[in-house]
Amino acid sequence: MSNDYLRLFADTCLSSFIDFNSSSKTGEVVWEVKINEDKEPSFDAKVILAADNFLVVYSSKQIAVFSSQGKKLWVEEYIAGSPVSIYANNIYFRSPKTEEDRLSAIHLGGTAVEAEMILLDTFESAQPVYIEPMTDGLIAACAYATGSEEGPPETVFYKKQYDTRDYLWVSSFFGYSNSLPLHIKTVNRFVIFGGTKVMVFNSAPKDVEEEVANFSLPLDMLLTASADQNGILYLLGTSGRRIVIVALTLDGRELWRYEKIPYGGDRSNLQPPMVGIDGLIHVAVGTTMTTIKAGKLVRTFRTDSGPIGYVTALADGAVLISSNRTLYQIDSNGKRVFKAELTVPIVAPAVLTETGNVCVITSNTIVCLN
Q1: pTM reported for the whole predicted model
Q2: Which end of the chain, N or C, is more open, meaning fewer C-beta atoms within 10 Å of its C-beta?
């Protein structure tokens, strides 16, 4: 078991799942630390990550690393909009200190990684929207923003070794991806969404890129998507006027769909379906989290503090739910363990320290709860 939360929504499946249990029982504050001091501008935090004994927070332009006890260790600027992720206790990002086609990395302890890491299809009119560091290279997806006279925009995705300008494999499609890609490492499948299509590639082909499936979206509009480690896709979108979740195999076969998700608010920033234990899938829309298994309703949980912002699923079936300034922890039966009130809104999914304490961020603070 591990408390790793290595990128936004936890992993490359965007599962929002941490294979660890919370030790927090009361929601009482253990410690609270400012990311920037009062004399500095507010940090404007967007995401908190966790690995080993470190906590990483980043804004739209800075990365700050803390110990799991709240001690600030270092701060670094990065290029706005650059994907940020942790791999092997290094944090990877694009730095304004280097050329735009270079990837930078710093060990969480603060030591720079001295290595040549080249990004392809990265320049003024082409920006990476996905970067995934791996042991044998990296996977990236880059979006070309072209003028109308140059034809439609294009998304290119590929795998390459770090220090070369050659692709190990590469493919592309015209248009932009309407959801972040998914990489299901356990079965070597890279899934990318383009327009009305779902494309599935072998992420570890022997020779050249290998598309293993290409099928139409089973929804009118895709809002977001995630996957589990077994290779089941969970697509959240619209069908008619309803918000619907559909479970698919990697060849596009529909396993189930659920069409009775309560709708009660803005749907422009929905979190991908959260993958819980024992086949449970959680969907948060408005003030309600709906828990589904094999297409059947298991339970619902409704906040009394406004729309749900973010959800994190845990190894024992517990779930952490943020709603404005409030954090809820519910157990595997959907019963509330605690309800903690902060003074300002929570701005990202909760993570766990190596001791199981819950950590959340506001715009300029990290709060650790017991």
Answers
A1: 0.95
A2: N
